[in-house]
Design brief:
The protein has 9 helices and 23 strands. The chain is α/β, with parallel strands linked by helices. The protein folds into 2 domains: 110 residues, Immunoglobulin-like (Sandwich), CATH 2.60.40.10; 212 residues, Rhodanese-like domain (Oxidized Rhodanese, domain 1, 3-Layer(aba) Sandwich), CATH 3.40.250. The strands form 6 sheets. The chain has a 5-stranded mixed sheet, with no helix packed on it. A 5-stranded parallel sheet has the order 10-22-21-18-20. A 5-stranded parallel sheet has the order 13-11-14-15-17. The termini are far apart.
């Protein structure tokens, strides 16, 4: 009798041990105060998530309380006793303070042993908080603001035609080489053009098929642009040939209006030397070293939106003042320069020659 009782107790203890086996998520310091950061800049912080339980943990989701925040998690499966870094990126996009909560939901059962599958539930909450100061200057444009409006012009004519005349900031990818050169930023507005629109329309169909869902062709091509705008925003070594017609609808059904391009056209200028520019620059930027900037004044409309940048804003401010002194009404400086852009976006939108 006693032996049976002991066996029964042992069995109950074993069952209880099995029932108690569960993943447990823990973080040494769930509250990160970044202190103070300037408006338009980004904070990065890495939390270390640990599974201190005795069962494999599955991270079901990670969500933030603000769209200004993104998270990067290399794996969602944690064996007992292991850990994983959770990188949190918080953009100081407005206001004077920033407070973001990050909610993490795992497969750990609730206190009653039931499956914790309600998306409204979470197992642990992390915090990132701090002050935003100083504000941006009126002449500064933040990386996230430029990224929102970023456009890439793609000239699909042959290199000789491109060298003779093209829109400022355009990159040259001949139509017959397009499928092999699809290293374009998918998050940017892509406007493709040729002389009259026919070839560009077909190129847009290729881009759409490759996942570039913000691709359009310039209605009427660069030929119509020259007819309407003259040499506005053009780099021209020789006159354009006659366009010979235009495409109004096109097979892709993705025309981009000439007037729309003109109203939103901006000039993005990389002020660094040629070697630095070739090593990596923002898509659509033209290279004008700071000392040569005055030589270009006659090519820019005085009311044009002109954005200048260098590595860290050290040269750009002087260039901005030079532009203002020359009566340009809308010059801007990229906040933090290319360094801050790369910090926030990595190699996205950065191209090499």
């Amino acid at each position: 009798m006693r032996k049976g009782l002991l066996l029964g107790c042992a069995l109950l203890m074993a069952l209880a041990s099995v029932a108690m086996a569960t993943p447990i998520i823990s973080v040494d310091d769930p509250d990160y105060d970044f202190g103070t950061i300037g408006l338009g800049y980004m904070v990065k912080h890495t939390f270390i998530l640990q599974n201190t339980g005795d069962e494999t943990m599955e991270i079901v989701y990670v969500r933030a309380s603000c769209g200004c925040t993104t998270t990067e998690l290399p794996t969602r499966t944690l064996a007992p006793g292991t850990s994983v870094p959770l990188e949190v990126l918080v953009l100081a996009d407005h206001g004077t303070t920033k407070g973001v909560s990050i909610y993490i939901h795992t497969n750990a059962p609730d206190i009653y042993g039931n499956a914790n599958d309600d998306r409204a539930d979470y197992d642990i909450k992390l915090y990132v908080r701090g002050a935003i100061s100083p504000p941006m200057q009126d002449y500064e444009i933040a990386p996230f603001q430029l990224a929102y409006d970023l456009q890439v012009l793609v000239d699909v004519r042959d290199p000789a035609a491109f060298a003779a005349n093209h829109l400022m900031g355009a990159i040259n990818i001949p139509a017959n080489e397009l499928t092999g050169q699809l290293d374009l930023p998918k998050g940017a507005l892509i406007i493709v053009y040729d002389l009259a629109g026919e070839v560009a329309d077909a190129a847009v169909q290729t881009l759409l098929g490759a996942g570039f869902m913000s691709a359009y062709y310039l209605q009427g091509g660069i030929g119509r642009w020259a007819d309407i705008q003259g040499d506005r925003f053009m780099i021209q070594a020789s006159p354009l040939p006659a366009a010979g017609g235009s495409v109004s609808g096109g097979s892709s059904g993705r025309p981009w209006n000439q007037g729309e391009l003109n109203s939103k056209f901006y000039v993005l200028i990389d002020l660094r030397d040629a070697d630095a520019y070739a090593a990596g620059h923002l898509a659509g930027a033209i290279n004008i070293p700071a000392s040569q900037l005055p030589q270009w004044f006659d090519r820019f409309p005085r009311e044009a939106k002109i954005i200048v940048y260098d590595d860290d804003e050290s040269i750009a401010l002087s260039a901005y003042q030079t532009l203002r002194g020359a009566k340009f009404t809308r010059p801007f400086v990229l906040l933090g320069g290319l360094n801050e852009w790369v910090y926030q976006y990595g190699s996205d939108y950065v191209t090499q020659m």
